[in-house]
Amino acid sequence: KAGVTQTPRYLIKTRGQQVTLSCSPISGHRSVSWYQQTPGQGLQFLFEYFSETQRNKGNFPGRFSGRQFSNSRSEMNVSTLELGDSALYLCASSPTGTVGYTFGSGTRLTVV
Amino acid sequence: AQSVSQHNHHVILSEAASLELGCNYSYGGTVNLFWYVQYPGQHLQLLLKYFSGDPLVKGIKGFEAEFIKSKFSFNLRKPSVQWSDTAEYFCAVNADAGNMLTFGGGTRLMVKP
After folding, report:
1. Is B50 near chain A, with CB under 8 Å?
2. Which residue spans within A5-70 are E strands per DSSP?
3. What is the pLDDT of residues A50-83, one digit of tens each?
4. Does B34 touch chain A (CB under 8 A)?
């Protein structure tokens, strides 16, 4: 079956702009999580959605937001981009969120 | 809040050597434990997971891990590594059947042919 699909794979944005990243989970998975991966901070949890509701949020500023649609697809948005937002953003899906996650290939965001 | 430590940041081994990567977590409640691997240029893949029961769990590609509750550890092992095991390995914890993973800093493994 198809895995977790993230689009786009690469993005280059300018400081101050905003960006929207998309994630399509594995069919039947209702939980979608987002993580930020950087060389300095490693993998950090951003937020998790289940059935269109945000159940958990990591320690990130309010510029980072997300949503989940009725078909479980999810988007995350970063407004007023900063250079430090350059990272690999990973989406992961799970049937319920408590039995382990399958990760997508990520979107590599570069802010210049 | 829980935290995860992987003390070995870089490990270099020759093919056929045995591997053990350390993972310690700090959390007093119930945990689910995972090891993920990230091959160069690829996405995170689940190697193995522990939820309950036998503390020795076997995963894909000959990897295994042992949960030692008294030591808050979940070390990853492989008896004989191959060049294709070159990758970064991440230990992760999910606390109290919650819905977020806390990752360790990762261990970069290089296997010399």
Report:
1. no
2. 5-7, 10-13, 19-24, 31-38, 42-50, 53-57, 64-68
3. 999 999 899 999 999 999 999 999 999 999 999 9
4. yes
